[in-house]
Amino acid sequence: MEATYRPRSWKTLLAFAIIYFVWGSTFLAIRVGVREVPPFLLAGMRFFAAGIVLYIWMRASGTPSPTRREWASATLLALLIFVVDYGLLFWAEQRVPSGIAAVMMATIPAFMALAEILILRTQKLTLRLALALLVGLAGVGVLVSRSVSFGDAPIEKFGAIALLVGAIAWALASVLSRKLPLPKSQVMSSGAQMLAGGILLALAAALLGEFRNFHVQAVSLGAWLALAYLIVAGSIIGFTAYVWLLHRESPTKVGTYAYVNPVVAVLVGYFLGGETLGARTILGTALVLVSVIVITTTPKKAVESEMLANAAELTETRRTSAD
User: Fold this and answer.
1) Residue 167, CA distances (Å) to 106, 173, 174, 269, 322 in order
2) What's the pLDDT at 241?
3) How far is CA 313 from the centre of its chain?
4) What Å distances lie between residue 139 and 70, 111, 283, 304, CA to CA?
5) For tag attachment on the chain, is the N or C end more exposed, with fewer CB atoms within 10 Å?
6) Of 116, 165, 149, 163, nearest to 262 (Cα)?
7) Do 166 and 39 form a contact (C-beta atoms < 8 A)?
8) Cα 33 from Cα 146, distance rounded (Å)
9) How far is CA 85 from CA 15, 90, 277, 309, 311, in A?
């Protein structure tokens, strides 16, 4: 029986558009902000403000507060998403151009695919997937290599490592979110995770001594506007759309934003941020995007279905033998 094609609703398309284009533009906003505000502190302000707004809004509309188990799950996800992923992203953008940072974060679908193979076990490692992962690795190698330069300087090594660690943390959190108990309301779930993330980031900023050298009066209007954009567009709107989609689409499909974000971020960084766009960036970006596109368009080999088929075959064999 052939599967009936069902077009996606306008809400789904709008949610995808938000995580594609809004998130793509936030990389430059981050780079503008971290020029004047310490990275973990800036990230903490962004997510605490967004989280408290969403939490109060949901409570005022009658949504119950998360249970202790749900708060525990939200805090675990916040640690992975906001402290590890976003904290390292903000830190790295002090050293890495915003467009390149977006390209490095585009490796998230690759790590999601690995998580689906190793954790969810809903995907099998095929030759196509293996080759795609190697192509993506080659793209990252082009960006960080000192021998393959094309006349451009490689990105800062520790910044690159931080971005890859952050990408792994995000992919792991995206998969875990399907297994952990979270509030039924996606908006409350987003708010709880961002609120917990903002508090954890503030603690990290305090431990790193970021408060000591921070002076509010020294921050320019441009940096405050960048922070406001990150809070409203990037967090309240963008992250809510992401969580909403994650409960309706597979992690790999939702992860397709990662090959639109880099293109948006590179172009925004080039035209508005004055960042360079050389052969190294173009080749590295192309390799990473080819990798992600192949990964996200690879038909799934459902392990569970295969196991059921094998079990049915074994049952039929036993019945035939008994006959």
Assistant:
1) 8, 10, 11, 20, 53
2) 87
3) 41
4) 38, 15, 7, 33
5) N
6) 163
7) no
8) 29
9) 21, 9, 25, 39, 41
Count CA atoms within 13 Å of residue 260 on its CB side: 15
3-state secondary structure the chain: CCCCCCCCCHHHHHHHHHHHHHHHHHHHHHHHHHCCCCHHHHHHHHHHHHHHHHHHHHHHCCCCCCCHHHHHHHHHHHHHHHHHHHHHHHHHCCCCCHHHHHHHHCCHHHHHHHHHHHHHCCCCCCHHHHHHHHHHHHHHHHHHCCCCCCCCCCCCHHHHHHHHHHHHHHHHHHHHCCCCCCCCCHHHHHHHHHHHHHHHHHHHHHHCCCCCCCCHHHCCHHHHHHHHHHHHHHHHHHHHHHHHHHCCCCHHHHHHHHHCHHHHHHHHHHHCCCCCCCHHHHHHHHHHHHHHHHHHHCCCCCHHHHHHHHHHHHHHHHHHHHC
What is the residue extent of each domain of the chain?
10-322
Location of structure tokens 């599967």: 3
Which residue positions in the chain have pLDDT lower than 70?
1-8, 148-149, 151, 252, 300-323
**pTM, whole model, 2 decimals?**
0.84
